[in-house]
Amino acid sequence: MINFLTYYNNKFRQDINQFFSKIPERSKHTLEDKTIFTIQYQTLTKDFNYLDFLDIKQKAFFGTALYFTVLVDQVCYSLYRQHYDNFSRLTFYPKFVGNSLSTDQTNFNPCDIFAAFNYSRDDKKKNETPRIEFWETFNNAVPVMENETKNFFKDHLAAIDGQLFWDNCKKEFPYRLKSEMTIE
Question: Cα separation of 16 and 115, whole Å?
Fold first, then answer.
């Protein structure tokens, strides 16, 4: 049985490349700088078959890995702008944007990635395709991504304190972690 660490380190890059090979060119580069890859909200929805190469468990892994990728990029841009050019040259992380001409230049909240996977305009697709539950995968991914993030800054961008950076990421989490829940 594959776990999130194995998926992230061995399969995520393959899956994101396969995803980009399936989406239309116009969805890949919606920003003025055409070297920056974008992922439009609609490309993750049930209305399109761009993710059909993944089973439901792999979709949970992919969506969670994509969430953390976008989150880390946005936290760096928002809070560590003086280091962002170096960060982006090292990572080339994609941006998560809207669908229309008015929003395809706008970064969406990474939490919306989870909603996109379960969204459809078509009631039939909405009801016939299983809902992807991310909470368990997300919880399992947190220690992996914390370690990956801290190590990245330690190894590649030491001017940023990895722990402080991660603490800023945690403030944006969409779910309460198992470790934060109390049993009464």
Answer: 18
